[in-house]
Structure formats: structure tokens, C-alpha cells
Design brief:
The complex is a heterodimer.
Chain A lengths: L1 H14 L3 H4 L2 H33 L2 H4 L19 H19 L2 H15 L5 H22 L7 H5 L1
Helix pairs in contact in A: 1-3, 5-6, 6-7
Chain B lengths: L3 H12 L3 H4 L1 H13 L5 H12 L4 H26 L8 H12 L3 H36 L2 H12 L10 H15 L2 E2 L5 E2 L13 H16 L17 H13 L1 H15 L6 H15 L11 H25 L5 H12 L6 H6 L1 H29 L7 H15 L1 H4 L3 H18 L4 H24 L6 H4 L1 H29 L1
Antiparallel strand pairs in B: 1-2
The chains are: A mainly alpha, B mainly alpha.
């Protein structure tokens, strides 16, 4: 994040180093970098303290009665995600290239089919009919309602 | 301030024919449906039905469109409360407490609160319009860049007091949001952060980013759950609980009135409207509350304050449209088109020469608001049945609507791509306990703050002291400073209580 912020600041300064351009960017990026530094410091201190705590809790007398605030009871935030959710996120990400290179209809159909399967639906007829009906209604509805053309593979064939 | 002859003429316009009333109920239903479906919005509904309005007389045509406006504002709350998708940019703060209420099985109450807060808010805004259309439009002309800057910063201060994740993480997320909001071409024509892509020349599409951060990330985060509300007993649609919510709104007039005043005032400012009004109102309601810590965790006051503000923004934007002929947003821009189709042009001459028509529009909207109570109550049981739908079907479907719903907003593929990217960023933020709300607020306000800051800077001959030289901006600054000091005092007092 810090690298991204610095790259953005440099890019903005290269575009123009006048106050007109940097009136908000420079203070906002500086503040963000300050917050990153403080957060990093806090994380390092917490890690250091928890490591020191772990060394202490390895003694037989204390392992049985770990305090409530010990790292073992910390919230699950930041833990490694379930492999299924990783696939789900990848399928979600795939909507973007599929929409650009294949068409909205293909992106909707593929996403609905795979996402419903990943979410636990295993009946093939339900999966396929839900994906087909949803794609038809959404793409058909959008094509009729919106004033902008909806790019689809179907139209490319027609 | 009221011209009674014109008011009588306006009443006569409604009483000699049924035609104006026939369009209200369909207009409200269309607005609610378009506002509630992610990806569609009430300006789209209004644009869709604009040609139809040509076959109606002027007053029924405007009533049809304002019915869609009113219904759409409320419809946005349905999506915000039930699936955490802001149906309109003005209902993003409704998600803050509305969706937590749904997760707790209090969706019926939340919907009731939202409906009546919307009704009361819209009613108050039209009441203000009825009595004060002239002074309100004159006040709008006095609002310049320094005042707008103060209002936008007021919205931004909400970041500091969100009780979502840690304080520091909130500040970081909010500041990064502000930085992202500056991407693109600024008001003096300098391109930043586009890295050569012409798609980003107008910046990151804020509404698409908002949908990605809020809605898509939440829907991705719900992966593995069976229903939005896990306890089957709490999924029931209960009309009595909806009515409890309605009664709650009626009792919380002290929360709704400031929300409605903020909404009308901010809504009258062209280009700002409900998107900022609901944030400012939420921030103000939280600051006044005796239990600020419960905000963001399912406090019905949060829903009431935001719904009152975003609904009343309609009245404010109508003031600018009627008195100055300036549209404040998508909805009023379509209405301006309807004006032109009927050879009517809003502006100072219009409200002087056609006061009867102006009053007819205002009075028609009063009745419309009352009709919304019945239409809303009839539709809420159907809408709240969403929580009974298994997430394995609901989540992918709504995700797709979120992604492709951004397409008409930008008119290019950049909208859907922004939803996907910000959806993934939002998921990572939620996973690592960073508040997405803070980034959303930063992203929404970053561009506005930069533009107004720059204009103030130029107005003040290359310094920002102009803020302290203009009475309205100075008053706004003092109010902002007082709110911040009071909030900080409460923050440290509460912290002392916890530690001591």
C-alpha cells in the first residue's frame, strides 16, 4: 500500500508539481503514509509481545490457564481463507475479462453456474436452468431497458 | 410567503379531474422496483417513462416522474437494508445500520423505520418548499466553493468516528479512499494516476466503487452461509414488526427532523444531493446520540436519520429545479427534460408567473407521500421475503446485478470492472478487519473536496483563508469544529470509563 501511495504521488508530481495539482494529493498521501507507519509499528509491537508471551506460556504451569486475551482467542480476521472462497474470488474476478472478450451473456452464465455450484448447489438441472433463466432475464431486460448497447456473444453471432 | 390565490388555483387543478391521481400509484411502484433492484435506479425509470409523459398534461407528467423519484428513494433503502446493496448513492449510509439489523433478524423493524422516515422526511422537505421556495433558492445562490468544501469535510469527519474495526485502520482506509478519489483529471486539467488509461480520465467511478466495496464484498463475504439470517425463526415476515418500525420513526421526530433539514438544505445544492446529505445526517445523528457506540451495529436511529435525509433531498433538489432551472442530479435532470418537452422552463420567472403550477407540484407530492405509506406497507412484506431466499441462489444473482448494474452508470465496461476490483479490495479489507465504510466515504468525497478546495484556493487569491472571510462558510466551520471537539471529548471520556 505504501509503495502504491508513493508511486501515485510521484506520478502526480510528474504530471504537475504546482500546488493546483497537489493541494489535496500531497497531504492525503502523507497522512496515509503516516498511518501505514503507525500501523506497521503497532503490528510489529503486537507480534513481538505475542512472541514473548508464547515463550512464557510454553512453561507447564501456564499453558493450562492461558489468559482470555492471549493470541489463541484473537478473531479469525487475517487467517488463511478456505480454498473454495479463493476459487469463488477467482471466478468473480473472471467476470471482468469474460465480459470484455466474450460478452456479458457468457460472463453472467459462467459466473452464475460456477458460483451457485461453489455455494453448494449440486443438482445439475437446477444449476443449468437457474443459469439459463437468470442470463436470459438479466441480459434481455438490460438490452431492452438500457439506452446503451449491451455487448453479448449472442449479438456477435447474429 | 404563501400566495393563497395561487394555492387555490393549484387545488382546483387537482379537483376538476382524476387524471393527476391515476399516475401516482404506478409511479411509486415503478420507482420502488427500480430503486430496489441493484443496477437499476429511479433516474433510469424516469428516463424510460419520459416519452410516455409527453402524452400527459404537464402536472400529471411531473407527478408521474416525482412519484418515481419518491418511490425510488425509498426503494433504495430496501436493497440497502435487506442485502447491503445501496440501491441509490443516497442510501449508502442506510446500509450502516440497516443491514446489521437484518442480520440480527430485525429486518421488518428496519423496513418500517425506513418507510416512515422516508415519508416524514419527504413530507417535511415539501413543507419547507411550500413555504420557503423563494428564500431557499436565494440561499442556494449564496453557497459557493468554501461552503461546499465545509459541507464535504463534514461528511468526511464521519470516518473518524465509525465504530467499525480499529480507529487507525479506519483513518487509513478513509485517507486511501480520498487519494483514490483524486485519480483522473482535476479541475485545472491535470491528469493523475491514470497511467495512460483514457478510461480513468473522469476518475474512478465512485458509485461503481461504492457498489463493489459495500455490496459485492459483503456478498462475497457471505460465502458458505445458507441464509442472510441464520436463525429460521427470525426470517419471518411480520407486519406487526414493520408497524413497530413505523411507530418508532414517528416517536423519533428529534432524529428525523434534523435529517430532513440537512437533506433539504444539502439536496438543494446542485451536484451534491442525497449522496452527501445522508452521510452528513448520519454523522450528525451519531454525534447527538446518547449511544453513539451502537451506530453501525443495528441502531434504528441510523436508518431513520439517513432515510429522512436522502428522501428530503428530493424536496431540496426540486427547489433548485423549479426556482433556478438547475438540476441537482440524475432524477431532476430527467425532470428538466420533461419540463422542456412541455415547453416549460424552470427559473425565477417560472415560480413568479406559474405559482399555481409550482404549488400544484408541491401539493401533489404531499398526497403522493401519503400514498407511499400504503403502497410501501403493501410491498414491504414481499420485499422482506428476500431473507428467506437461500444465499446459494441469492448471492451469485445479486453479485451479477451489482457488476452489470454499473454498466449503465458509466456507459462503458469500466463500471463493471470497477465493481469487480473494488469488490475484491473490499473482501480483503473485511478479511483483515479494515472498515470498508471509511474507504467508501473517502472515495465519494475525495473528488468533491479536491475540486471545492481548489476553487476556494483560487477564489481566495491562492490561499484558503477565504473560508473564514465568508459568513456561511465560517458558521459551517465553527459548527464542524464544535462537533469534532464534542465527539473527541466523548471518545476520550468513554475510553477513560472503559480503562478506568
Amino acid at each position: 500500500l505504501a509503495v502504491g501511495l508513493i508511486v501515485y504521488l510521484i506520478e502526480a508530481m510528474n504530471a504537475s508539481s504546482r500546488i493546483d495539482n497537489l493541494i489535496l494529493i500531497a497531504p492525503a498521501v502523507s497522512l496515509a503514509l503516516l498511518f501505514v507507519a503507525i500501523l506497521l509499528g503497532k503490528i510489529l509491537i503486537t507480534r513481538f509481545k505475542s512472541r514473548a508471551g508464547n515463550i512464557q506460556t510454553t512453561t507447564p504451569a501456564t499453558t493450562a490457564t492461558a489468559p482470555a486475551s492471549s493470541p489463541t482467542t484473537a478473531p479469525a480476521a487475517g487467517t488463511m481463507p478456505d480454498p473454495y472462497i479463493v476459487v469463488y474470488l477467482l471466478v468473480f474476478f473472471a467476470i471482468a475479462p469474460l465480459s470484455v472478450y466474450a460478452g456479458f451473456d457468457v460472463a453472467v452464465f459462467v459466473f452464475i453456474l460456477t458460483a451457485t455450484w461453489l455455494n453448494g448447489e449440486r443438482r445439475v438441472w437446477v444449476l443449468s436452468s437457474y443459469a439459463i433463466i437468470f442470463t436470459t432475464v438479466v441480459i434481455g431486460g438490460f438490452s431492452k431497458i438500457l439506452s446503451v448497447p449491451v455487448p453479448t456473444l449472442w449479438e456477435r453471432f447474429l | 410567503m404563501i400566495n393563497f390565490a395561487a394555492a387555490s388555483a393549484a387545488i382546483a387543478l387537482f379537483t376538476h379531474t382524476w387524471a393527476p391521481w391515476l399516475v401516482v400509484v404506478p409511479g411509486l411502484i415503478i420507482g420502488i422496483v427500480f430503486g430496489a433492484i441493484p443496477g437499476l435506479s429511479f433516474p433510469i425509470a424516469m428516463a424510460l417513462f419520459l416519452p410516455f409523459s409527453l402524452y400527459l398534461d404537464f402536472v400529471p407528467a411531473i407527478l408521474l416522474l416525482t412519484a418515481m423519484f419518491t418511490g425510488g428513494n425509498f426503494g433504495g433503502a430496501l436493497a440497502s437494508i435487506l442485502i447491503n446493496v445501496p440501491g441509490t448513492p443516497g442510501s449508502d449510509a442506510t446500509c450502516f445500520d440497516g443491514f446489521p439489523m437484518t442480520k440480527q433478524g430485525r429486518h421488518n423493524e428496519a423496513l418500517g423505520v425506513a418507510l416512515f422516515a422516508s415519508v416524514i422526511g419527504t413530507g417535511i422537505s415539501y413543507l419547507i418548499l411550500f413555504f420557503m421556495i423563494q428564500p431557499l433558492s436565494e440561499a442556494v445562490l449564496r453557497i459557493g466553493a468554501p461552503e461546499m468544501l465545509m459541507i464535504a469535510i463534514w461528511g468526511l469527519t464521519l470516518i473518524a468516528f465509525l465504530d467499525e474495526g480499529s480507529f487507525l485502520k479506519g483513518l487509513l482506509a478513509g485517507t486511501v479512499g480520498v487519494v483514490l478519489g483524486t485519480v483522473g483529471m482535476n479541475s485545472v486539467g491535470v491528469l493523475r494516476g491514470t497511467f495512460g488509461s483514457m478510461h480513468l480520465i473522469d476518475g474512478i467511478p465512485a458509485v461503481a466503487g461504492l457498489i463493489g466495496l459495500f455490496a459485492a464484498s459483503e456478498l462475497l463475504h457471505l460465502f458458505g452461509q445458507n441464509f442472510i439470517i441464520e436463525d429460521p425463526g427470525k426470517r419471518k415476515v411480520d407486519v406487526r414488526k414493520i408497524l413497530w418500525g413505523a411507530g418508532y420513526s414517528l416517536r423519533r421526530f428529534k432524529t428525523i427532523l434534523p435529517g430532513a433539514l440537512i437533506g433539504t438544505g444539502v439536496g438543494a445544492l446542485p451536484g451534491v444531493g442525497a449522496a452527501i446529505a445522508n452521510l452528513v445526517s448520519y454523522s450528525a445523528a451519531r454525534a447527538r446520540s446518547k449511544e453513539p457506540k451502537t451506530f453501525g451495529k443495528g441502531n434504528p436511529d441510523g436508518v431513520a436519520a439517513t432515510e429522512a435525509a436522502n428522501s428530503s433531498a428530493e424536496g431540496g433538489s426540486m427547489a433548485t429545479l423549479l426556482a433556478l432551472g438547475v438540476p441537482g442530479g440524475g432524477g431532476t435532470a430527467v425532470m428538466l427534460g420533461a419540463f422542456a418537452m412541455h415547453n416549460v422552463y424552470g427559473g425565477p420567472r417560472f415560480i413568479v408567473d406559474h405559482k399555481d403550477v409550482v404549488y400544484a407540484i408541491i401539493l401533489g407530492n404531499f398526497v403522493q407521500v401519503l400514498v407511499l405509506v400504503f403502497v410501501g406497507l403493501a410491498l414491504l412484506p414481499f420485499a422482506s421475503a428476500v431473507v428467506k431466499m437461500p444465499l446459494r441462489y441469492l448471492a451469485p444473482g445479486v453479485l451479477i446485478l451489482c457488476v452489470f448494474g454499473a454498466y449503465p452508470i458509466t456507459g462503458t465496461i469500466i463500471g463493471p470492472i470497477a465493481v469487480v476490483i473494488f469488490g475484491l479490495i473490499g473482501w480483503v479489507m473485511r478479511h483483515y478487519d479494515y472498515p470498508v465504510t471509511a474507504m467508501v466515504i473517502g472515495l465519494l468525497l475525495g473528488r468533491l473536496i479536491e475540486g471545492e478546495m481548489l476553487r476556494s484556493f483560487h477564489l481566495g487569491s491562492n490561499n484558503l483563508w477565504i473560508i473564514f472571510q465568508r459568513p456561511i462558510s465560517l458558521i459551517l466551520f465553527l459548527c464542524l469544529a464544535a462537533t469534532l471537539v464534542y465527539q473527541m471529548y466523548r471518545f476520550f471520556r468513554d475510553r477513560k470509563k472503559v480503562t478506568g
